[in-house]
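In response to reviewer comment 3 from the previous cycle, which asked for concrete evidence that the modeling workflow produces usable outputs, we include below a single protein chain processed end to end. The sequence was submitted unchanged, and the resulting C-alpha cells are shown without manual editing.
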Amino acid sequence: MTELWYDGPLLSLDTETTGVDVFEDRIVTCNITYDVPNADPYVADWMINPGVEIAEGASAVHGITNEVAQQQGGDPYTVLSNIAEHLSNWEKLGHPIVVYNAAFDCSLLVVEFDRYGIDQPCSFARVVDPYVLDKALDPYRKGSRKLIDTARHYGVELSEEDAHSADFDSMASVKLCRAIGRKFVIDAPIVEVHAMQVKAKVKQSTSLQAYLRKKENDPTIVINTQWPIQTKDTNDRNS
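The workflow returned the following C-alpha cells.
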C-alpha cells in the first residue's frame, strides 16, 4: 500500500515578523521542524536582526522586542542563506512543506531571499496549508480559524501560553495537517492537493472580497487570490 502524504515525512515552517506586510516587513524569527514518522522531530530555530523597527503590535504577539532582536539576532544574509539551504535540501526530496496561512510566510520568504540576493531555493510547489484546507473541506463550520482554535477543533491539544512563537506554530501546523488529512482521507498525490488549494484560495479570497466590498461599501477593495506565493499589487490586501 502506498504511503499517504500526510503519514509520511513533513517539513513545517513558520515565521514571526516585524509586521503584517509581506512585501515590506521582515522576518524576526523562523522555525523549521522536520517531522518524520518513527523519529523525534528535528527543530531548527533562527532569530534575525531585521535592521528595521519591529512594530509594537508585532512585538506584542511574538514577544521579540527591537532590543532583543538587535542583541540576539543574526545577520539577515547569513541566516536567510541557512534557511535557504534547508529548503533546497528538502525540495530535492520531494516531500510536502506545511505552512499555516502559507500566502503570508511563503511570500515573505521569497521577498526576503530576493531582498538579499539569495537564489530562490524552493519552488513551493508541494505546500500544504491547513488554513486553506480547513476552509475548503469544512467551509460552514462555526468557530475561529486561528491556528490554535483550528488545531483544537481537530483534536490537537495545544497550550495557549506557548502560542505565537515560530517553533510552537510550526509544530502545531504539522500536527494539524496530519489530523485534517486523516479525517478527510485525502488520498490524492501531493501535487494534486497543492493544485486543489490554489483553486480553493481563489474561491475563498473572492468570497471575502465580495463580503468586504459590501460591508465597507467600497467596490475598490481587492483581495489577493494568489497562493502560496503572492506578487505585489498596491491595490491588494494581503490575505
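Helices lie at 56-62, 66-72, 76-93, 102-115, 130-137, 147-153, 166-184, 190-216. We consider this sufficient to address the reviewer's concern, and the full set will be provided in the supplementary archive.
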